[in-house]
Amino acid sequence: MPDFRRELVELLPRLRRFALALCGSPADADDLVQASVERALLYAAQWQPGTRMDSWLYKIAQNLWRDELRAHRRRAEPLDEAEQVVGEDGRDVTLQQLQIDEARRAMRALPDEQRAVLALVVLDGLSYQQAADVIGVPIGTVMSRLARARSRMAEALGGRAVGVGAG
Amino acid sequence: MNPTDETLSAYLDDELDADARAALESLLARDAAARERLQALSDSDARLRAAMPLGSAEADPLAALILGGTASARRAPAPVMTMPRPALRRRRRLASVMAMAAGLGAIVLGQALLTRHDSGDAGAAAPWQQADTGWQAALDRQPSGVAGATRIELSFAAADGRHCRLFAQAGGEGLACRAATDTGWQVVAWDATAPQAGASDGYQPAGASAALDSAMNRLGGGDALAPEQERQLIERQWR
């Protein structure tokens, strides 16, 4: 059990990032992380040592979000006021913060299922197979959702809509 | 024939099989619009990663709760959070793509050779041949993924405790490391410039040079540092 708990703690930063990507708001992400950790501890016996705990944990979080928490999401909330980026001077901080806000807003504007694949593959580096297992969809679905998500992100962040269609 | 976003996306994630990858790479070599699209998609990936840094496990408000009263768990040092292993390979691949888009090829020089190349070269000189030490400053201070005369692709901690950064600039693409006690960066591998991408000859597909990869493997150690870890190291001047 200590090993299980320690591994769970090591995964907290990644779980938090996944939750923030999934929920969009820090408060919802906190709730989701806490609920996921509670459930993981409760069902610790179901996790098989030697298998990937990250995928297992993400699956718990993803299901909790989809089935229970999403309906109660808190919407009206300023963007991540708690997270300040420290730079060399004030102007730096502002520019960095603007860039971060812009990227987060762009992600938040995506449909839930696109945010999930973006978080798992682009942020967390899971393979398509692993992401497909977590979400419970075929690999082809992961691929197409990712492509759509990336296309929309690039549009929002690059200010250019140079979509390359099926050739 | 334009590549679809799906193909480009799978390429960024290293999820194409060898045939599809080779086909795409030869297309990328000829098609500037496709390269531009790939760049746009990868830029937005980089922006997203920078906007969503990892926190620390130790400082997580839930950590103490989870570990509870297990003293042994508390004594154990929390390992540094790293990205999963495939991420480094993917980022390396991406670095190759961008190097290719800039028309860079793949001739690596071992460390023993580096010191012999002390004469200047017209146009695209290797870093250690340049009077301009901007690349050193970039290695010191520039976060990964930011555009500039020198572009840092990624940072990681080598097995021997040194910090290493993969970088690209007009002259080529290289790998530099420094220990906490060093005063500067040491270039441990370098890919020199090849003819422009898109030229009918001389084009080398991305990843054709395994030299930087093998140098990175030789150095061992962890995966690519998260932006937050990198930021802290920059602040501490890599000490």
TrEMBL record, chain A:
One of its GO terms (biological process) is DNA-templated transcription initiation. Belongs to the sigma-70 factor family. ECF subfamily. The keyword Transmembrane helix does not apply. Residues 10-75 form the RNA polymerase sigma-70 region domain. The lineage of its organism: Bacteria, Pseudomonadati, Pseudomonadota, Gammaproteobacteria, Nevskiales. This is RNA polymerase sigma-70 factor, ECF subfamily. PANTHER family: RNA POLYMERASE ECF-TYPE SIGMA FACTO, RNA POLYMERASE SIGMA FACTOR RFAY-RELATED. Transmembrane segments: none annotated. One of its GO terms (molecular function) is DNA binding. InterPro entries: RNA_pol_sigma-70-like, RNA_pol_sigma-70_dom, RNA_pol_sigma70_r2, RNA_pol_sigma70_r4_t2, RNA_pol_sigma_r2, RNA_pol_sigma_r3/r4-like, WH-like_DNA-bd_sf. Residues 102-153 form the RNA polymerase sigma factor 70 region 4 type domain. Keywords: Sigma factor, Transcription, Transcription regulation.
